[in-house]
Amino acid sequence: MQMEADTVRKKYQAVKASFKSDACLYSCCLDELEKSIREQDNEIERLQKVKMEAIELRETTKETLTKQELEAFQKSKERESIIQEYRTRVEDRKIELERLERLIFPAAQRQIVRGDDLDTGRKSRTLGSARGTGTAPPQSEIDRLEEIFVKLRNATGVSQTSQVLDRFLAQRATREKLKRMQTSTEAEKVQLEKHRQQLTAEIEMLKFAETKDADQLVYMIIQVPSLKNRKKEGNLFRHFFQKCR
Questions:
Q1: Which residues, 6+ apart, have CB-to-CB distance to 6 below 8 Å?
Q2: How far, in Å, are 7, 9, 18, 25, 190 from residue 13 at the CA level?
Q3: 135-151 pLDDT, tens per residue?
Q4: Is 84 helix (H, G, I), strand (E, B) or coil?
Q5: Keywords, A to Z (predicted)?
Q6: Nearest to 51 by CA among 223, 207, 201, 221
Q7: 244, 43 in Cβ contact below 8 A?
Q8: Hey, which of 159, 228, 234, 237 would disulfide with 30, CB 3.0 to 4.6 Å?
């Protein structure tokens, strides 16, 4: 009977010693697990902040991009409207001047009329000389030409005959200016399109970074419960070993 008691006592002491050894080992493991859990909690919090910042940046970038696209579209539309208006006015004036030019100068005698060549005084002297030589044109033809020339001056918007050529040159300069404006508008549209593509690429990069951070966050959230369960098991072992002591 005594031998059985000694045997039981020895087994109990062996089990108790084993539990104490395991308690020391699990105590160290639990400390490391608690430290790891705290670090992962901090990392999860940091990733959540990064995610919120990425979302805010994405929304801000979208708003900026939309605003810039709208402004670019409005500017382009306004410039195209102005260019079209000027082009229409120039074409209308050009057609009117060409029609009057055909009426004034026959096709066989058409030439560029410059300033003082159509001056009233010189025309009078020419008519006087023509009458002196007996080659004066009919009065009806002269009246018709004068009427046509008056229409030409009215079409060009000037009051003096010497300004007719200047108005032609001014219209040519206006046409060239419109071409330059059109070229500048096209170049600006190209730059705005490049800027839009750049902003779109930045948004895609932000989306990719946000997705990557979200995946990491989900992985850590999945891992946390298992770590907490291991912590609970360690606490149970620790409590059991403390009772054995």
A1: none
A2: 10, 6, 8, 18, 87
A3: 445 667 777 777 776 77
A4: helix
A5: Coiled coil
A6: 207
A7: no
A8: 234
Task: Return the beta strands (E) in 49-126 as ranges.
Answer: none
Q: What are the tokens at 65?
A: 């991009």
Residue with tokens 């999945």: 222
Retrieve residue 33's tokens. Answer: 């697990």
Percent above pLDDT 90 for the chain = 0
Q: Cα–Cα distance between 2 and 129 in angstroms, integer?
A: 166
Total count of residues recorded for the chain: 245
What crossing angle do the helices spanning 139-156 and 163-244 adopt, rounded to 10°?
20
Q: For position 117, what pLDDT does the model report?
A: 46
- List, for residues 229-239, the tens digit of each pLDDT value: 555 555 554 55
What are the structure tokens assigned to 207, written together? Answer: 């989306």
